[in-house]
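User: Okay, second chain of the day. Same drill as before: sequence in, structure tokens out.
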Amino acid sequence: MSLDGAFAEDLDALAAKGLRRPWPPERRAALVDFASNDYLGLARSPASIAAAREAVERFGAGGRAARLLGGGSALDGEVEATVADWLGAEAALFFPSGFQANVGLLGAIAGRGDFVVCDELAHASLIDGARASRAIVAWHGHADVEALERQLRGQAARAARRRIVVTESVFSMDGDLAPLQALLAACERHDAHLVVDEAHAVGLLGPERAGAAAAFARHPRLVARVVTGGKALGAAGALVAGGRALVELLANRARPFVFTTACSPTVPAAFLAGVAAVRANGAPAERALAAARRLAALLGLRAPAAAIVPVVLGETEGVLAAAAAAMEAGFDVRAVRPPTVPAGTSRLRVTCHAERTEADVDRLAATLRPFLVGSRASAPATPRPAERPWVVAGTDTNVGKTVVSALCTLGLANAAHGERAASYWKPVQTGSDDDTTTVRHLVGGARVQFERPLWSLPLPASPHEAAAAAGVRIDPAAVTAGMRERGGSTVVELAGGLLVPLDGAVTQIDVLAEVRPRLVLVARSGLGTLNHTLLALEALRRRGLEPAALFLVGPPHASNRATLRELSGVRHVLEVPPFELLCHEALAAWLAANPLPWLVDA
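Assistant: Same drill. Structure tokens below.
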């Protein structure tokens, strides 16, 4: 098959899941705009258009070269000075886009030996910038300051040269506000610094509409704010604002700045016009915010922090139907689906603009209201951690995952206290052993529900090879769906190591990255464990996955245990020695000596 043929198959697979976006995108100029980020209508304002036209006549159409090679125009420096003054910062640096600004910023201020922790709903540009920095990257639950502090108390954070906390101020897909004051207080307690992306707050919130973090502009722990021009300001480009030393460091180190041709002079010109308009008149921002609050109230949703109203309907079919109904009624409202948002949280992302009338808002609400009946529209954007299953994964095969799965299952069953039973599930069983039977034996009479594997394959090999030998094919989507259907009282045991393929293309870690369950990692205690375990942790963290615990199974090895407690960054590192007799009583005795409160508290 040609590569183009393979691409076509990939597109067909997206279409089958309702995730294929048409390209070129449909133009909907005749519809009432509830989709774009032009909150204040400045992209078409006469002042912005006139400023861009004058910039072309003065400086020409192109950026000509990177700014360090003489590209750009005098307007670049002017917009930097203007925005720094507006935001109360010492200096600012102009980038061609918000994505480049975020990637360049994090890549310049963090690197090997540093620790970056992001809100799990942070924008893709922040996540990519964190990963590209080569720092240790961790995630915390959305707007959960306690979860952030748990990360900052960990060994990896404490041993790091720098600790960087990353958030949006107004989240682009959820419309809610980060707890900035609490985040800064946490940074003070743990010697960390905060980076805030103000893309959807600037122009709408704060004094002079200078953003949600404007009140903390001089806070010593606020290291940088990112301000984009393509939303409320009606332009394009972005600036990183902060201290003078930060800006000079970015000009030397931020690769998307150093190696990118400067913007056309029209971009800083329109940016400057947008800033002037926003600073001079707050009425348009108030109208946009009022429209968003009105729409949310009419739909029975929480009041938004700014101008974004997420209408979470759950699965893709309902969201696509709602978007189609809105378009039929004359509104441009877009369906947002995975991977832009977490699976199971497909939504309409409705943006409200200053020029929208109450009649526009009321008619849109009447169009969308029928789709909210019986939907998950009031659900949180992501499942709470306690609603996610526990997955027991291994650095390799035969490392003791089944024993650890039995310990975790028994621990959950002991904590249930008459509530719903714990459950155990191994989606893919390979080899002649029956791990489900083994776990059933080890938990004794505890209240546990056991679920049958989707595939039981006799060959003791990688799942894809065992399936091929049996003449069947494992469907990774079925494994993914099975994990999503199971809640926090379920223990799911994987087959083999993290990176083994399920079907020749999709690995087990790919499924984990999509489901984002709570994780337990199991490794050998002895020779080779340092390399295998640290590589496994690196693979998990590159996908935004952080284990709650690391179990070392086998004869106790004090040196390896101490090294992994020091280097792994995992909060709970436990040893499970060989049991003289592997039985329920032995596991119960181990749990009595090593209670696992994080199983229910995580």
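Residues 385-601 form a domain with the Rossmann fold fold (CATH 3.40.50.300).

User: Thanks, on to the next one.
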